[in-house]
UniProtKB/TrEMBL annotation:
One of its GO terms (cellular component) is eukaryotic translation initiation factor 2B complex. Residues 208-246 are annotated as: Disordered. It comes from Aegilops tauschii subsp. strangulata (Goatgrass). Residues 93-197 form the EIF2B subunit epsilon/gamma LbH domain. InterPro entries: eIF2B_epsilon, LbH_EIF2B3/5, Trimer_LpxA-like_sf. This is EIF2B subunit epsilon/gamma LbH domain-containing protein. One of its GO terms (molecular function) is translation initiation factor activity.
Length: 261
């Protein structure tokens, strides 16, 4: 179910009459199906030759991204979508996409099904495997990135390892940092030298969300991957926009970056 609904004008009046409807699938559709008096009908259309998908969690984000890279969504693929953009993306062998202005060390290895964005530099002895690297990123020496999504303007220093994780814009990983599988590092996070971010961690500048689940969260709870709770990192802030997850050698401060799952 890609959650594309084409409704008749009668739907608006039905929502007016049944103002307690809070969720389209759980309340509205169920209400129509059990109503034998009005005789309303719902039709479905199966797509056989086209592609449609709904991204509502990180698992579906990963699945659809892989479909795009592997060209199941043609013509919605990186090298075609880049047309008209000053930063042209070219397709190479083994499903490797590289922008025109990428600085790549001769000893670096780019594995199959990977994307490297414009103005990104990759240092010596790096391995980029099955991953997407955004624009303006700086990746140092001996870095291993596997099955991950690195967004724009990310700095990854020497000896870091990132596995099956998502790293948002303007994140800074200092030398030797390790991001274990299933992690999400939100915007402008800084990870200290040799710090290990435990598996399935979420690090963000935002306040920790309440425990109350919305109807939509409950609706798709079964599609979310399992995560484990972890204690928050202690951190220091050079300024309000750049929190730091500190290593043992760094000075601890009173502020915290919320670290939750």
């Amino acid at each position: 179910d890609c959650y594309i609904d084409i409704c008749s004008p009668d739907v608006l009046s039905l929502f007016t009459d049944n103002f307690d409807y809070q969720h389209l699938r759980r309340h509205f559709v169920k209400g129509l199906l059990v109503d034998d008096i009005m005789g309303y009908k719902i039709y479905t259309h199966e797509i056989h030759s086209s592609y449609a998908a709904r991204i509502d969690n990180f698992r579906s984000y990963d699945a659809v991204s892989k479909d795009i890279i592997q060209r199941w969504t043609y013509p919605m693929v990186p090298d075609v979508l880049s047309f008209g953009n000053c930063h042209e993306m070219k397709l190479h062998r083994q499903g490797i996409y590289k922008a025109s202005d990428v600085t790549l060390s001769h000893s670096a290895q780019i594995g199959a099904n990977s994307v490297i964005g414009n103005a990104t530099s990759i240092g010596e002895q790096c391995k980029i495997l099955n991953s997407v690297i955004g624009e303006g990123c700086s990746i140092g020496k001996n870095v291993l990135i596997h099955g991950s999504y690195i967004w724009d303007n990310v700095i990854i220093e020497d000896g870091c390892k990132v596995s099956n994780s998502l790293v948002c814009d303007d994140v800074h990983l200092r030398a030797g940092a390790i991001v274990e599988p299933g992690c999400i590092l939100s915007f402008k996070i800084k990870v200290g030298k040799n710090v290990v971010v435990p598996a399935y961690s979420k690090v963000s500048l935002l306040d920790k969300p309440s425990n109350e689940d919305s109807d939509e969260e409950l609706e798709y709870a079964d599609t979310n991957s399992g995560v484990t709770d972890s204690a928050p990192f202690s951190s220091t802030r050079g300024n309000a926009d750049h929190p730091t997850i500190v290593s043992e050698d760094d000075e601890l401060g009173a502020s915290e970056v919320f670290f939750y799952s």
